[in-house]
Design goal:
The protein is of the alpha/beta class. It is built from nine helices and eight strands. The chain has a single domain, classed as P-loop containing nucleotide triphosphate hydrolases (Rossmann fold).
Length: about 210
């Protein structure tokens, strides 16, 4: 009964990769019932989940009005509804933010991504004002290089965003993570994925705490 929306202004930040790992974690590790809405025109989340035969209920919806109708209906029948939005802030994405309890914004530590994060945060704040504080929003740094200047700058920037919680767990750049889509798997399925899996579990715990 919690709607989680993965949202960003642009693609290429690992949004779908994070969403798929989150869905797997909820369904297989936490044993929750999960419905998934792939609202991204690329459809990579749906393709990935079907290849893994994960068994979650999957819907492919990119129309804003249909999203507004279907999301609340699914919420009544599942522990979680996870929406992977398109890499933009178009009408479909704005529609999911009108129903989501939690909004998750991934960014990579680059100047362009940090600019886009500010725009995404602005749209989230607009919804929060209209909905009495919802969605609760968290932003995290993805595909980071340890001890880099860009990472330090990104941590500083996300800490200054109003009404958006900077999540502490950072997901570092790893070839293993980049390879999961082609392997039709998650890091928990691959040799050498223990450390990455632990990082994801910490991040996902923070995400769920946003809704409490």
């Amino acid at each position: 009964m919690t709607i989680v929306s993965f949202t960003n202004l642009k693609g290429g930040v690992g949004k779908s990769t994070t969403a798929v790992h989150f869905i797997y974690w909820l369904a297989k590790i936490k044993k929750k019932s999960v419905a998934v809405i792939d609202a991204d025109g690329q459809g990579s989340t749906g393709v990935w989940l079907q290849a893994m035969e994960l068994g979650v209920e999957l819907h492919r919806i990119i129309d804003a009005d249909e999203l507004a109708d279907q999301i609340p209906a699914l919420e009544e029948n599942f522990d979680y509804v996870v929406v992977d939005n398109a890499g933009n802030l178009g009408e479909a994405t704005r529609s999911t933010l009108l129903t989501a309890k939690i909004a998750v914004i991934p960014i990579s530590p680059s100047g362009l991504d940090l600019m886009s994060a500010a725009s995404a945060a602005k749209v989230v704040r607009q919804n929060q004002k209209a909905r009495g504080g919802f969605p609760k929003a968290g932003i995290f740094i993805n595909r980071a290089t340890k001890n880099s200047k860009l990472l330090s700058e990104a941590v500083e920037v996300i800490g200054q965003l109003d009404s958006i919680t900077p999540l502490k767990q950072i997901i570092y750049r790893r070839e293993l993570i980049a390879d999961t889509f082609l392997q039709k798997a998650t890091v928990w399925d691959l040799a050498g994925g223990k450390e990455a899996g632990a990082d994801y579990q910490k991040l996902f715990g923070e995400i769920l705490r946003l809704g409490k």
